Automatic annotation (TrEMBL):
It comes from the Bacteria. This is Succinate-semialdehyde dehydrogenase (NADP+) protein. Belongs to the aldehyde dehydrogenase family. CDD domains: ALDH_SSADH1_GabD1. Residues 3-452 form the Aldehyde dehydrogenase domain. Keywords: NADP, Oxidoreductase, Plasmid. Its EC number is 1.2.1.79. InterPro entries: Ald_DH/histidinol_DH, Ald_DH_C, Ald_DH_CS_CYS, Ald_DH_N, Aldehyde_DH_dom, ALDH_GabD1-like, GABD/Sad-like. GO terms for molecular function: aldehyde dehydrogenase [NAD(P)+] activity; succinate-semialdehyde dehydrogenase (NAD+) activity; succinate-semialdehyde dehydrogenase (NADP+) activity. The lineage of its organism: Bacteria, Pseudomonadati, Pseudomonadota, Alphaproteobacteria, Hyphomicrobiales.
Amino acid sequence: MAYRTLNPYSEQMTREFPEHDDFQVEMALVRADTLFQSTWSKGERAPRLAVLARLSDLITTNCDLLASTMAEEMGKPLFQGQMEADLCAGIARYYADNADEILKPQPVTSDVGEGWVEYHPVGVLLAVEPWNFPIYQLIRVVAPAIAVGNPVIYKHASIVPQCAALFEDLVRQAGAPEGAVTNLYISSTKVAELIGDDRIQGVALTGSEGAGSKVGARAGEMLKKSTLELGGSDVFVVLNDADLAKAVQGGIFARLGNAGQICTGAKRFIVERGIAEAFTQAFVGAMQGAVMGDPMDPQTLLGPLASREGLEGLSGQVEEAVAHGATVLTGGKRADRSGFFYEPTVLTDLTPENPAFYQEFFGPVALLFVVDDDEAIVALANDSNFGLGGTIYAGDITRARALASRIETGMVFINTPTTSRPELPFGGIKRSGYGRELGDVGIKEFVNRKLVVVSNT
Ligand code: NAP
């Protein structure tokens, strides 16, 4: 796909970027690998953490520019882009402040002698990232990599080339040397070639199951470590004793934030029968009342979808769901206006025979189910090919905790929509992928956990 900025609100293409050629790709590899052999990667950690601290400040200073570039390229409402930039500044700061502690050698008790595990960089990483959180997806890989000493080459989604370049520029401004972080405009074919290159030692991909399967397979073939952060169809459970207003407000943000294009967005609403009528009425009303409009307008909650392809795909999914018996409680079609807008939609009466039952809806479409007890909640929640996140709204926290333990996903949040913070490990199971990003777990995905033992004999 060609790299270009096509504003999803105006539907106008504003900029195009040529792909990097073979020579430029080779130069990127040479610079990254040369840096890996240098004291930048193999020496003291302090200079790298100082870069992260400055990067955090620079992201904060450039918050509005980052947010407006996201709005222009993929339609994220301005205040949501500012929230994303804040989170990114926090991630850089978190690793600047905590990497020394997280990466300090861990003692191992053994009858052989005194042992410990040290954490060393492994080499150049390749990151393949999606457009939905254009800066956050990058920093989830780049910040821990800088802390560890792994150079990163990234291929960003072809619809966010300016975000891709802006981030690289900020990292350089923060003082990272040439080769530490490199943005390449390249094709999927080139990604496969790069994974085969000896200088690449690991691959992190966030994206669809299709891309994950291809990249994961190629990494396996070349015996390279990979992490995959893929799709999800997260549940949003509302129990009878939940705070109704909080659940509705949380549900709206969890389904309409980023126009519903969040891997951990609430996609399947599972509501207990005693609260079902009240919740459905309030939730459908709030969906209908969501302010849709120009992402650059601070009042906008719901912007356009990021691309025409996304809009067409979602429209087709809803049509297919209805053709197989789903009932539309509100929405159900493209909004009657220019831009790639889709109406906030609630579907119900979905059976496992309906293809929609097992699909991820990457847009403002909620699937609503009414159930009678915990067994039904767990059965429905776990009847999914995905296993990313999930949310439970409840008054009785003991019951919610027990349910959380039984839901087969990588993350569950109680009484708050699924969210991301620098210190919280993020990732899933099943077809949502493998590995974790962020927190102390994420930074240890691409390290050499080197064991050293001094014999006691
Ligand atoms: P996508 O098509 O898989 O694109 C993601 C990235 O992979 C892009 O850079 C894309 O490049 C690249 N790509 C696509 N096919 C590839 C291939 N065969 N080889 C190498 N690279 C390839 O994903 P999307 O549909 O844009 O993004 C939405 C998906 O990502 C959803 O399923 C969502 O749930 C998931 N997601 C998951 C997380 C998480 O943390 N678990 C977070 C965000 C999104 P091009 O743009 O050039 O095609």
